[in-house]
Amino acid sequence: MEHTMKKQNLNTLICLLLAMLAFGCQKQGYIPDPVGEKIPYADTVRPTLKEELAQSAATIFYAAWQRSHMDSILKAQTIGKTNFTLLVPANAAMETAGYNLQTIQSMEPKMLDSLLLYHTLRNNVTPQDITGKADNFIAPTLLIHPQFILSSLRNSIPYNYRQQLQVKDGKMYVNGKVGGTGKYQPAANGGMWFIDKVIPRPAKSLLQLVEEDGRFNLLLQIMRYTDEQWNKIVTDANGYSNKPAFSLRFAWQVMPVNTEPIKIVQTTLFLPTDDAFKAAGFNTLQDLVDFNKRRGLPYWGLNEFGSGDVIGNFATDTLLNYHMNWGKTFNIPKEYNASRVAQNAPIIFSNVMTNAVLSNYLITGGVKYGTNEDPEDPEYYMPFDFAKDASGIKVKVKRAEFTPARVIDADIPAINGSLNAVDHLLIPKGFKIN
To answer: Coiled coil where (predicted)?
Structure first.
């Protein structure tokens, strides 16, 4: 019995010691400080992007990955827990774009790098980021053009190709176009969106697109004609003229410089086709020339400071400025000239061309330059009204009484922006054609 009591006392003592130990561990003062460096977290349960891709049905895209340098590129980009997002075209989309298993094996790995990097986004773009949102989510890709920089009056930044994404009503939009249903697969180091198209990478300037299109002949003719006439006015007075062509003034053309990199100014254009001019009664270049003559031509004279200058504009400048420059030339006072010229304007795609999204959209931010006494240029907001019916997207100048223009071809990608073709002129309020 004595032996039994000793055993019970020993058990009781052990229980008391365990209870004290458990109680002691709950007190903050008994927790030792961490020693050594923190071990980086790694998601060992979920597969990586490459592993998920290998298990997917996108075998052609995965074959391109295997032949590319993507493994080493992503490793070099990774700092800590860096995430990426893949926009993965289905096999049918790859084949439609000219890529199959045979062509992949014959391509240079660097060419495949460009294709894959253009479809790879920095950070993890999740369904919460792009589903049901009113505006597009703008995501920079890992593809950088080494010869370009995005330039504005404020600063210059590297030229990252970008994708604008939205998932709405069961459709995924990529740069304005339907790109799939919005199927997403998370991974340890980011996620993948499966899409139904290879995303076209812009390779031409807005000017090149317009010149090659064939639908904008009258527009090009009148802009070149008025440039020529303006230069003649100045040259007759001064002996020379150094005004840049319209394609540079309105950022259609890639800006040439003496040293690399080349400065890119981006914008969104709503350009009138030849049919748009004809709908307004202008069938030929001569019709537009006569229109300018009836309204009065610019001439050389003295400006408000008593200096020689060109006085006035061509009537077609007003007629076309909303197509070319968002109407800034005529809506922003001359003393705020920095905001009147071409600057980086938003690239707006057709899937968000609604008043709900764009009614108060900032086109040009206020610019402060020079001394403290210099005024800051004003902010300039969206000048257009948008509507949509069975025929498509309609756009007109706010408060204008003219027939809205229909966007007949939207979201044509360019190095320096996006081109939309319209079937009527964007005529401002109070402007008279006849």
So the answer is: none
